Every structure is written in C-alpha cells, then in structure tokens.
Amino acid sequence: MKRTSFFCLSLLIVFAATSGADDKSNSPGSPQPVRVLDCQITLIDHVTLASDRSGILKHVEFKEGQSVVSGSQVALIADEVAKANLAVAEKKASNDTEVRFAKVARDAAENEYNMAVESNKKSGNALRAVAQVDIDKARLAADKAALSIQQAEHELALNKLNRDVTAAELKTYSVLAGFDGVITKIYKKKDEAVRQGDPIAEIVNTDRVRIEGRVKLADLPFAKQGAKVLVHLFVEEFDLPEEQETFEGKITFVDLVSDKIDRTTRVFAEVQNRDNILRAGLRAEMVIEVDEQTAAHRPAAGNSDSSQKKKRLSINAN
Question: Cα torsion for 137, 139, 141, 145, to the nearest 10°?
Fold first, then answer.
C-alpha cells in the first residue's frame, strides 16, 4: 500500500512539473517515469581522520556530536621539536651573509686584478710593474670570487627549500577536518600514543547522500548521468510523516556491468538531504524522470520485436 501511494505521489509531482497548455502531456502516450524500488541510502562525506606520524597526542579539540568546519584542527600531536627545527631552518633561510661576503670578495679581487693590469699599462711594454703570472693569479682569484657568489646563492636557496620542507613537516602534526561536518566518533584521547595511520576521529556530513538502486535492463536507457530523480524515504514497518517528503537529485553514476541473473544495473544518485531525513542505513524509493524523446525508444512488454525474437529462437531450435 505504501509503495503504491509513493508511486502515485511521485507521478503527480512529475506530471505537475511537466504539465502545461500542451495536451500531449495528458495523452496515453505520455512518458512514464522509471520507478526504482528498495534503494539504499549511503553517505558521501564520511571519513576517518588518521595520524600522519607517530607521537603523543597533545590536544583533541572536539567531542562526539560537535560540529567542525573545513580546515579545523581536530587533534594535535606534540610538535615542540618540529617547531624548534622550523625556527632553525627559518634563521638559516633568512641569513644572506655569505652572499654579501662573496660579492665583497669578488669586488676586491676584481679591483686587484684591474689595478695590476692598469699598472702594466702605465709602465709600458719595456718594463712590467706586475709579472704576468701575478696578473693571471689575480684574474683567477676574481673568477673564483664571482663563482663563490653563485655558490652562496645556491646554499641560501637550499636553506629556503629546507625551511619549506620543515614547515610542511610541522603541518603533519595537525589532524585537520577536510570538510564541514559532525564528529561521530573519537578513537584517541589526549596524551595517548599514536602511530602513523592510527585513526583519530570520524567525521560525517549528511547534507548530501547517495541513493543506490538497481535499474531493470529495459529502463537502463533512461538512467543516464545527469538524469533528474525524485526520492522518498521508505520504511516498511512504519508510516512516518517524513515519507511524504520529496527530495530532488541527479544520477551521478551508472555501472558499466549488469547483473546476469536479475538483468539489473547498479546506479547512484546524489540528493541534497535536508534535515537529515534520508538517514544512511535506511531504504528509499526513487523515480527517474523520462522525457518524451527518450520515452519513444522505451521497450514495451510483449512488443513485436520480442515476439519476432522468440520466433527466431524457435526456428533455430528446430
């Protein structure tokens, strides 16, 4: 009785949305929506936060039932050593003394070389004030000083990269929420030891849910990604007022493989779940809307093609 009333209500909603001045919508050939029974409600945003490293829990910020926003720190592993390492890395990354010293040394070496060359020019070719070997040494010293600048700049760049790595490592001591939700379970408490990969807390967001159902092979052409669906909660044992609520959504996944026994195909629809009426673990019923163009290709029970197929099989058997 409940399934019949749900289907009738869904039909009324679909027809009300598609009706208008055109009389075709009321004709016997109007497209009939696809009814998918016994669908399962599952969560989309449901994760277990884990520790990215070993250590001792310094803080656990939330308790079961509390809300969190995306980016909130749920837990913190003791990070004093990591902070100290970052301070050292930042100090090294900000120290450009070696670069400035190398530039001064280069300027001095080049000045010495230029003075030697200039001295020889003034003395003329007959008598050199500075031996050629000394000029060559001065040129080598100037070149070496210029290269030392590149080496100092390279070391400074490495120090900055090491600072970035240390800062990234420090972030791994924090366990952060990846989306808005509610803490449903806490696995570890303050001062407990954790290893890498140990679960810390569970976060759930029920703003949207997935409706998992199975569509018959004949109705599969209408279960396309993006197709509009209407969903109702269905509880067999009770008559709940929430079962009269209608939720709109769209199909997000159609399985590429069909079940060879019951000739059905698995489909997922994503639905906005107001007031958490569509609770995960319960069942629902879904109606897939069908437009007139797609309905023109809908197979009919006992049609001529089916009769012809049976006839061919009978001939082949004989």
Answer: -170
